[in-house]
Structures are given as C-alpha cells and as structure tokens.
Amino acid sequence: GQQVMQIPQYQHVQEGEDFTTYCNSSTTLSNIQWYKQRPGGHPVFLIQLVKSGEVKKQKRLTFQFGEAKKNSSLHITATQTTDVGTYFCAGPGQAGTALIFGKGTTLSVSS
Amino acid sequence: DVKVTQSSRYLVKRTGEKVFLECVQDMDHENMFWYRQDPGLGLRLIYFSYDVKMKEKGDIPEGYSVSREKKERFSLILESASTNQTSMYLCASSRQGNQPQHFGDGTRLSIL
User: Fold this and answer.
1) How remote is the C-alpha of B57 from its chain's centroid?
2) Chain B residues with beta carbon closer than 8 angstroms to that of A90
3) H-state helical runs in B12-61
4) What is the 3-state secondary structure (H, E, C) of chain A?
5) Interface check B47 vs A, CB under 8 A
6) Closest by Cα among B102, B105, B81 to B92
C-alpha cells in the first residue's frame, strides 16, 4: 500500500547546528504537509506545499517539495532549544479522504 | 481558531470495560479522525468520518468502533478494553479529507 517514509527517526544536535529531515512517498502526492509535535503536546500544522519544486520559508525553517512530488524536506538553520519535538510529514491517501503520516523525526537539541 | 476538544486528558480503565472517548470540534469541519500514537510507531489511523453517520476504517480498526451522530462530535468506542489498547489517542478534524488537520490535546488511556 501507499507509504510515507521519514528519515532519520531521531536526530540530536548542538544548539546552533543545522538540522534536516527527509520525507519520501511511494506515490506522487498532490500536496505535502508538515506538522510539529512538542514533547507532551499534540501535532500542530506548520505548512502545506502544493507545487512541484516549491520552496517555502518560515523564519529559520525551509520546506521543499521535490520536482517529482514524491519527496520533501524540512531544514532548520541554527537550531534552538525551542525547536525540539517530532516533525511529521503527511501526504494525501489515494482514496482522497485521509492523510498518510510519516513516522516522524524526533529532534533533540542540547545547549 | 479551530478548537478540537477531547473529553479527558487521562483515563484509567479495566480490561473488559467498554470505553468511550469523545471529541468535539467547533469549526464545522466535514472530516474527523481518530489516531493512536505509540512510541516508534507514529500516528496510526483507527477510523475517520467524512460526514454525519459515515465512517471509514483506517489502518488499525480492530477492537474499536466509532459514532458520528452530529457533525461536531466524533466518538471512539473500545468495545471490550484490552491492555494492548493502552496508548495516546488523538482526535483531529479537517475541512476536507486532504486539508490540514487540527488535533486535540489527546487522551492518555491506560487499561489495567
């Protein structure tokens, strides 16, 4: 069946270092969404990418959607302790009524 | 702002009990979802609903049922709770199926 895979599963960085998580789909996606879940919290929607090759920025976060619309990445520049949490990507399921979530990348940051 | 409210943050039940988890959203969203979240397994979809009285099975529906009698409310039912259903349960809603989802705070359910 359709799958959305994320790597790495865990990443630990020193504060100020950069961080990237990658998302790959087994099928072409009409859009890709990114969510962040803080420790003890619930997933919160960050952004949606729709166009092939699209790049969007939110302050230190840069989101990319691949040309083939099967992969995406989230890059954080100069991480801060407030960036800790689990980052999920999600793409539409083939039936069109539910999202398929990746398993997430958990980021820890030490100061 | 969208508000998704889950009835309990923490719940402790015994094996064999019938358990009800309630979720209410206030933005007139068409779609509602129930997930469980376990360490290392990410978010797994249990059931979703795209309209009142409509439901669709997700990836792990066994041992669960759902009810959507009103648009704003989506209930998850554990027919006969078992210890392997101890988990964090998250409810979400969205305007349409592929649109961004808004999550509730979650219910941490322990089955003893």
Assistant:
1) 12
2) 101
3) none
4) CCCEEEECCEEEEECCCCEEEEEEECCCCCCEEEEEECCCCCCEEEEEECCCCCEEEECCEEEEECCCCCEEEEEECCCCHHHCEEEEEEEECCCCCCEEECCCEEEEEEC
5) no
6) B102
For residue range A62-77, what is the model confidence (pLDDT) as tens digits?
A: 999 999 999 999 999 9
Tell whether B33 is within 8 A of chain A (Cβ).
yes
| pLDDT tens column, B10-32 | 999 999 999 999 999 999 999 99
Which tens digit of pLDDT belongs to each residue from A6-62?
A: 999 999 999 999 999 999 999 999 999 999 999 999 999 999 999 999 999 999 999
CA distances from B63 to A33, B80, B84 (A): 30, 7, 10
Asked whether the beta carbons of residue A31 and residue B98 sit closer than 8 angstroms, the reply is yes
Measure the CA–CA gap between A91 and A101, rounded to whole angstroms: 7
Residue of A11, A13, A22, A1 lying closest to A88 (CA atoms) = A22
| Distant-in-sequence, close-in-space partners of B25: CB < 8 Å, separation ≥ 6 | B2, B3, B4, B5, B32, B72, B74, B93, B102
Q: By CB neighbour count within 10 A (0-12 exposed, 13-18 middle, 19+ buried), where does B62 fall?
A: exposed
**What is the C-alpha separation between B24 and A83, in angstroms, rounded?**
29
Determine, for residues A45 and B101 on separate chains, whether the beta-carbon distance falls below 8 Å. Answer: yes
H or E stretch covering B10: strand B10-13
